[in-house]
Amino acid sequence: MVVKVYGATYAACPQRVMACLFELGFQFDLIKIDLQSGEQKQPQNLLRQPFGQVPSIEDGDFKLFESRAIIRYYAGKSASQGGTNLLGETLEERALVEQWMEVEVNNYNPLIYTMVLQLVVLPQQGQVGDMELVKDCKGKLEKVLDVYEERLSKSKYLGGERFTIADLTHLPNTRFLMEEGGMEDLIKRRKNLHNWWLDISSRPSWLKVMDLPK
Amino acid sequence: MVVKVYGPDYASPKRVILCLIEKEIDYETVDVDLFKGEHLSPQYLKLQPFGVLPVIEDGDYILYESRAIIRYYAEKYRSQGSELLGKTIEERGLIEQWLDVEAHNFQPPLYDLVVQLLINPKTGVASDPKRIQEDEEKLAKTLDVYEERLSVSKYLASDTFSLADLSHIPFGNYLVTTLKKEYLIRDRKNVSRWWDDISSRPSWKKVLELHPPVL
Fold first, then answer.
1. Which residues have CB under 8 Å from A3's CB, separation 6+?
2. ipTM of the assembly?
3. Cross-chain Cβ contact A64/B99 below 8 Å
4. Residue A203 and residue A163 in contact, taking contact as beta carbons nearer than 8 Å
5. Which of A55, A129, B50, B90 could form a disulfide with A7 if both were Cys (CB 3.0 to 4.6 A apart)?
6. Which of the residues A1, A47, A72 would you substitute to probe the B interface, choosing the one with the greatest number of B C-beta atoms within 10 Å?
7. A214: pLDDT strictly greater than 90
8. What 3 state SS string does chain A have?
9. Are strands A28-32 and A3-7 parallel, antiparallel or unpaired?
10. Do the chains contact at A91 and B75, CB–CB below 8 Å?
11. Per the CB < 8 Å rule, is A105 touching B97?
C-alpha cells in the first residue's frame, strides 16, 4: 500500500517525513496542500490535521499527524519487520535517539521556527520581521550548537555511531539555517557539527527530497 | 541500584516520577534548586549540558529530556505496571502523535504562563500582560482541539490511558492550582471529564504527596 503524505515539497515538516520514507524504502504519494493560499487551514485539511498544519499521512485506514510521530511510526515498523533500522539496537541506544529527538523539539526547532517566521514568512505577507528577536534567537542557538559540537566530538552521529532518526529530524531546519537563514557560519565554524551536516545532507534520501519539484 | 531523578520539586521531573510510579519502578531523587541556579552548576551541566530539568542516572546510564526518559522506562518495563504504550504499533503511533501535540501545542504556552505568573514574581522580573493573553489564547485553541478529540475517545490516543495523557498531568496541575486558570479546563465538558480522570489516578496522588510542588 502506498502511503499518502499531505503537504508540500518545500515545507520543513513534510520534508522530514519524506526523507524518512525514502530512507526506509516505503513508497508514498505526495498530495499537495497549497500553503500560500492557506489550504492547510481549510475544513478539508482540518479533518486530517485539527491544528491546521502539514504534514499528515493516510496509510490505508490508518491516519496520523505530527511529523516526528510519523517518522517514529515508520521507523518502528521498519525495524520490527527486519528492515532498515533507524532507531538503534538496544533500548538504551534507542533512548539516546529519543533524547536527541526531544532536544531538537525543545532546544533547536523553536529558535529556528521563530527565525523562519521573522525572516521569511512575515516578509512574504508584506510585514516586517523582528530583527531583534532574530538576533536573540541566534545568540541562544550559538549556545545550543556548542552542546551539539561537544556531542559530535565524541560520537559520529547524535544517537551514537549510526545514522538514526535523531539526525534525520534535523535535516530540514538545518538546511534553512544554511540557506535562506543566511547563518551557515554557525555550522561551518564548528568542525564536528559541519562534518556531521555534510555527511547527513549528502545522503541519497535527502538529495531525493531536495530534487522534488516545488 | 536505583534510578536517580534530578529536580523532583518541578513539573518536568514529575513527568518522569509519575511514569516510574505507574510502572512500579523504585527511584531516588536528588534536589536541584532552580532559584539558587543549581541547574547551571558545572556538576549539573556535566549530566545535562542544556542546563534544564530533569536528568536521570541509572547506574552508569545517563539520560535527559523527560519525554525520552518516560518512553525508555515505559518500554523497558513493558511487562510490569500499567501498559502505557498501547497494544499495536498503530496505537503506539497515535500515542506518539498526542505526545508531540502536548510538546508543541500544550506545553509551550503553559510553560510561558508558569514563567510569567509563577517564576518571574519570585525573581523580581516584570511579567508581560500581552504575552500572558497570547499564551492563554493559544492554550484555549489547543484545548478546543482536545475537546473535540475527547468527545470521540476516552483518552487522547485511544480508550486506554497512555503516556500521551500522562505527559499532560504535571504542568496541567498548575492550571488548577497556582495559575488559577481552572476555567480553561472546566469550560470544556470532555476536557474536564478527562482531566478529572487522569489527575485522580493513585500514581499522581502519590507524586503530589511525596514531592509537593514548590511553584
1. A21, A26, A27, A28, A29, A57, A58, A59
2. 0.96
3. no
4. yes
5. A55
6. A72
7. no
8. CCEEEEECCCCHHHHHHHHHHHHHCCCEEEEECCCCCCHHHCHHHHHHCCCCCCCEEEECCEEEECHHHHHHHHHHHHHHCCCCCCCCCCHHHHHHHHHHHHHHHHHHHHHHHHHHHHHHHHHHCCCCCCHHHHHHHHHHHHHHHHHHHHHHHHCCCCCCCCCCHHHHCCHHHHHHHHCCCCCHHHHHCCHHHHHHHHHHHCCHHHHHHHHCCC
9. parallel
10. yes
11. no
Among the listed residues A122, A129, A138, the one whose alpha carbon sits nearest the alpha carbon of residue A177: A138
pLDDT, residue A1, reads 75
Chain B 49-68, residues with CB within 8 Å of chain A CB atoms? 49-50, 52, 61, 63-68
Is there a contact between A193 and A157 (Cβ–Cβ < 8 Å)?
Answer: no
Q: Do B67 and A102 touch (CB under 8 A)?
A: yes
Residue A68 near chain B (CB below 8 Å): yes
Kindly identify which residue of chain A lies nearest to residue B138, measuring between CA atoms: A51
B92 touches chain A (CB under 8 A): yes
| Max CA distance (Å), chain A | 50
Which pLDDT belongs to residue A11?
Answer: 95
Q: Which residues contact A18 (CB under 8 A, 6 or more apart)?
A: A5, A7, A9, A28, A30, A208, A209, A212
- From chain B residues 116-175, the ones with a CB under 8 A of any chain A CB are 142, 145, 148-149
Mean pLDDT of A79-105: 97
Is residue B193 over pLDDT 90?
yes
